[in-house]
Amino acid sequence: MYNNSTKNSNLIKQEALRLGFIDCGISKAEFLENEAPRLEKWLKGNFHGEMKYMENYFDKRLDPTLLVDDAKSVISLSLNYYTDDKQSDPNAPKISKYAFGQDYHAVIKDKLKELLFFIESNIGAVSGRAFVDSAPVLDRAWAKKSGIGWIGKNANLISKTNGSFFFLAELIIDLELDYDSPFQTDHCGTCTRCIDACPTDAILAPQVVDGSKCISYLTIELKNEIPAEFKNKMENWMFGCDICQDVCPWNRFSKAHDEDAFKPENGILDLNEKEITEITDEVFKKVFKGSAVKRTKFAGLKRNIDFLKS
After folding, report:
1. Less Cβ crowding at N or C end of the chain, within 10 Å?
2. 4-89+96-173, what's its fold?
């Protein structure tokens, strides 16, 4: 029977696609029982390195009702950032694709606010919160639970139709909806390309990544000096790393995004090796204005560049 929760779920999914999200799945807001031992083991292995915030709010990471009172549904969304654009100088220190345009946090937060407003305007008053990679929410676990994809050997969420070059975000609301079936099948099979390609051996086992060895962590999250053991292993990445995604066969299905906010700005892709190596604070502020690269601050990016070039 076609009930209100079915109608409301369909309305929400249609609006999510209209806002530019490439996928939307809905799951019941409940304790993530299977994730608790995994998260505990990962933290005990100290695979979070200096990301001490990962130790905080352990219960909240697993239980959405502790984040939103009387939470009933977790709406998981994905937003494509894949692009064929490349840095013009192949020898220039590299930037991860996701940082070519405007900072995704602000872009997605605006879309989530619009979606929440749509729900309130078309369905009724709801209480809820929007999450974009900035709160204790296990994005990939919820995305898998809502049927968007499976967790690959590199611990990224992978979709059969969209690959893995997308951001994940959530709306947790106190509205009961129809729930999608969790993604059950792992389509990585015997492929180990991501494990074999990682230059710092950060992927210890399928779905187990030592974050403290990951180039993205070393160039963004790490605040101290990059350990000498990673000398000549960074593959010229100065902000983030796309290696394990670039080699993934499922990313041959990636299509270029059509999000204006993610298009390269301020000549970010035109900087050559010399200009990056000799970058000044003034140029940093101009080129990376509004970009996720600003997270490293000038001193952090300079540290990364110096480490690559020393």
Report:
1. N
2. NADH Oxidase (3.40.109)
